[in-house]
Design brief:
heterodimer, A: mainly alpha, ABC transporter involved in vitamin B12 uptake, BtuC, two-stranded antiparallel sheet, 14 helices, 74% helix, B: alpha/beta, Rossmann fold, 32% helix, globular
Amino acid sequence: MNAPSRTLALPKIANTLEARMLGLAVVLAIILSFISPHFFTERNMFNILDQSVVLGIVAVGMTLVILTGGIDLSVGSVAGLTGIVLALFLKEFPIPVAIVLAIGCGGLIGLFSGVLIAVFGLAPFVVTLGVMAMGRSLAYIVSGQRSISGLPMGLQDIVYTTVLGIPTNVIFLLGLYVVTWAWLTYSKGGRTIYAVGSNIDAARAAGLNTLFYSIFPYVAAGALSATAMTFSLAQIMSADPIGGNQLELDAIAAVVIGGASLYGGRGSIFGTLMGVLIMVMIRNGLNLLGVSPFWQGTAIGAIIILALLAERLITWKSRRV
Amino acid sequence: MVDGSKTPEPLLVARGVTRMFGSAYALSDATIALYRHEICGLLGANGAGKSTLSRIICGHLAPTGGEILFRGAPLAIGSARDALRSGIALVAQETSLTPDMSVLENIFLPSYAMPGRLSYARLRRKAREILAELGHDHALPLDMEVRRLSAAQRQLVEIAKALALNADLVIFDEPTASLSPTEVDRLFDIMTKLRDNGKALAFVSHRLEEVFAITDRVTILREGKTVADGLPTAGLTQNDIIRHMVGRDIGSVFRKTAADRDMGERPVALEVTRLAAPPVVRDVSFSVRKGEILGLGGLVGAGRSESAEAIFGLRHRTGGRVVVGGKEISPRSPIAAIRAGMGMVAEDRRAQNIVPDMTVGENLFLAQMGKHRGFGRGHAARRRQAGDLMARLGLPADRMDANLLHFSGGMQQKVIIARWLLTEPEVLVLDEPTKGVDIGTRQTIYELLREVAERGVAVVVISSDFEELLGLCERIVVMSDGYTIADLPASQLNEESLTLFAAPRSSAERNAAFLRDLVSSYGGTAFWGLIDGDQFVCLAVAEDSRTAPMHLAAGHVYPVRETSMPAALQARAPGIVVEEDGRSTLLTRLSNRRGHDLGWIGLSLPPGASIPDAQALSARMATLFEIPKPEEIDA
């Protein structure tokens, strides 16, 4: 009910949650640049983008899943497992083949969850909780409980090549967001994802392929977890079975900060990008300030809750109908 | 029962009540007075504020302004709990039940809010008493979970819940929406009893016939204001009420089609043969021609919506053929049906049609996007048609980006119908297209459907509102318990005959058995039917194989003169009438407890047969013949 009265007071763009989150990100950046002289430097800006790559890629898959009204708790452990799998493949195959195979593995794991959820009607929370446990356990089994190093040096090229001074991993991240935004906004498939999350019965009755688009987000989430891990491996040049630990929590937090509804149907990929940047900036700022890593969880948790509470208070009046 | 001798104090008076949602007024100046020993109808178009006012009186909502006096003292209601304590109960539209709890727990849910220990034995005894009073002590198992009950049974639980509170003031918010005519009769009996016991009742309804049948006074709201305050029902006509509700004369809602158009020549657009989708749809056959409006009538639970879903690919079917435009389709999902040229407006607007997080525009294009083959959304190709359609339906073009849920039910329904028109269907199925739609918008929808049919679309309308079916459709197919049992031109039917055709098959079968029984003891032909002007509507028939056949079949209408017993049917009197050719026919009139005409039961004997004792036989017919019981309707 907020539309008529509010649009009069503010331009329409400021009326969206994404715009307010962009504002929050900017305010946060300004505050951090006052607190720490090292924050607002070109080098640190690239740092932040660089640190956003893994979380940013995983959050895209998580956005699709959450838009359909589901949740994927397995992305962190799938990232860990596919990281190990990629490291092993790299010893056997040329780099591009190994990467494609690892991403395929991630997609297959997603297909497994998606079919159980969409065809057999199991609860997404429970299915992906199971896959999360299995993924982490298999990561330890396959790796022999050791981290795997000695990866081919050529792998670094996907991170350390630059185009017009911008690293390729950042270009990939931004490109992924642009493509996903266009797909979600202008394609039949993208709109079907929203319709599935908002009212799956109506979507089905209107002739949309609800089954396919209930499964697809989980496949995308799995494949994107593997993709994110590829960039991570290229940076640290080793794979650890604990890799990607708790990535699912950061990804869910980023999507929710970005304004998506956990009931599905509402949210945007731009909002998710804002959520990712806010998460990474907070962590980056806390590191620059030398805050103990043990306090960082408390600080990040508090900021997430405060951001959502503020959002709820802003729209409180209009929600009470 | 307006008590004229002493003008009593009203039990509840509400004056100048206002309520705002955001910056919009839902109620701007509502006034109502409710008296003991009276049933007051609360009427108004959709969005007039009936439900808001009901919920304010019951404490579910706080008013923004105004004054409410209950028993002469200001009503200080902070919560629904306060209202229950003070003796006000609301019979809501089955929405206030907890589906996972048992019937017993639901009936006494309000007492969970009261302090003290619960005695289940006592509650159980009390529940039985209440249900017995409702006449449903056997139909409603106390331990069954509410989720497994039919819509009608849930409504009964709602009513029992209100009675359990022993409230002095009971508000019935559209209680008849999911009840069959017989159940409505039962409910009215209960309401009459409550009134005679000194309770004050308010009755919210869309159905004007019911308002005339049960209320003593009416209060009418329009756009949040009371425009008629407690007018005695007896002095009003249907037109008076409509004028108050919409603020203008709208004439007759149903413009009769200009002469029956000849449909025989037109090609069949949809043909359904022996469709089965257990457990609800058992054997359904009908066809509809291009440009025809076909009605699918029957009681709630007869399997009409389920048949439509099976045809459209939303429900698994086990047998039967569906032919659309000459091609057989067997869709497993709606997309095949849509591409074959079908469209379906499902019954539940909120649950099955509207995508709440999408704009008006996207909701409008949704089926077009489903039909469209390709990667994009397929909006661009239809943008002009969409603009024309929205202009035709009176939706401002600049509101295409608004949220559809902010519009009235009528406008939402128009958008959903437009969604399907945009796919240019050959067959359009509409399930209860005017459910919860106010009378003004209803007329627009009827006009739209006629227009669509005139352009050559085959339209199938499913409706429980028999008046609507008769007024809108050219032909009506009646369903009962999953079978199609009659297929007749609307001009040969009226509300009584439709009601009787739609009666549940279980009692129809018992009646048929009784007719067979008659025939086996006396010979000849036994029948149950209606005499309507010079037409005889045959509802059931049994014939002795040894006698000359009378060529009557259930589900058919015959001109009285062409039957073999014209004299008897014209006489329409109890007793034996002998025809010119010597055939003798005994007729007995049937009616239910409220005096509703249920037609005639008869035994016709060929010339020369021995004639039984008329009086004894009449008595036997009238007592043994089973009148459909409400509890069987959804069993």
